[in-house]
Write a structure and sequence with these properties.
alpha/beta; Rossmann fold; eight-stranded mixed β-sheet; two-stranded parallel ribbon; 9 helices; 42% helix
């Protein structure tokens, strides 16, 4: 190839790559947030809106959802334990973010019914609707059956692990985020560390606001697909290059 033509092609490729990177970071598409009125879910909704996404909320109480989220959000009511109520919310959705969790160790909202069967219902409905990306908030420790939380809270981590596996087995693109202990503190005050393999890290924690940031950046970043990551905060500088952060992770 003529050297001048080759240089031109390389420059054109660089320009096109830059355009692609910009598009990757732009908020586009419709995102359904399940558990949108929860302490983490409401932060996810706010961050998605700030990023330019069209957001839908799935909640059991529409009035509560509008009080918390405002009237600009489309609210779909239903219960993840009832598959018939889940499907309609998925129509026309590009991405689903599930931030649900059991409300008690026993009873109708116990971990088995919410963290496993509820997640499975969401995944099945998302597959049927052709959703392109499913993000799931899980927890550190899900691979350890001897974890104290299982004894205290109805085998919650065991059921979360089974919910994760239902998502992996679905064949749809996914991202699973396993936070450490959740803090109700401002985000962006330290470095968000990514690890994999569910290592025993002791008492590590992360603000819910930072978990929301990880989720929204994962929606925008193709390198987040088909990966499971544990996250926690340490002292340091906030992450600024999220595509590079996700690119360091190994796929499942």
């Amino acid at each position: 190839m003529n050297p001048h033509r080759r240089l031109f092609c390389l420059l054109l490729l660089a320009v096109l790559s830059g355009c692609a990177a910009t598009t990757e970071q732009a908020g586009s598409g419709t995102v359904l947030v399940v558990g949108a009125t929860g302490q983490t879910g409401r932060l996810v909704v706010a961050d998605l809106r700030s990023a330019g996404f069209e957001v839908r909320a799935f909640a059991r109480d529409a009035d509560k959802a509008r009080r918390i989220l405002g009237n600009e959000i489309a609210v779909f009511t239903g219960d993840v334990k009832d598959p018939a109520t889940v499907g309609p919310a998925m129509t026309g959705v590009d991405t689903v973010i599930s931030a649900i969790g059991a409300r008690g160790a026993t009873g109708p909202d116990r971990p088995e019914k919410v963290d496993f069967e509820g997640v499975r219902n969401l995944v099945d409905a998302a597959v049927d609707a052709g959703v392109g990306h499913f993000l799931l908030v899980s927890s550190m420790g899900v691979t350890r059956e001897d974890h104290p939380l299982n004894k205290m809270f109805g085998d919650v981590l065991i059921w979360k692990s089974r919910g994760e596996q239902a998502l992996r087995d679905s064949g749809m693109p996914y991202t699973i985020v396993r936070p450490g202990g959740l803090l109700n503190e401002p985000g962006g005050q330290g470095e968000i560390v990514a690890v994999q393999g569910d290592p025993r890290l002791g008492q590590v924690a992360v603000p819910r606001a930072d978990v929301a940031t990880v989720l929204v950046e994962a929606v925008k970043t193709p390198a987040s697909r088909n990966k499971t990551v544990e996250v926690y905060r340490i002292e340091g500088d906030p992450v600024t290059d999220w595509p590079a952060w996700f690119a360091t992770l190994q796929p499942d």
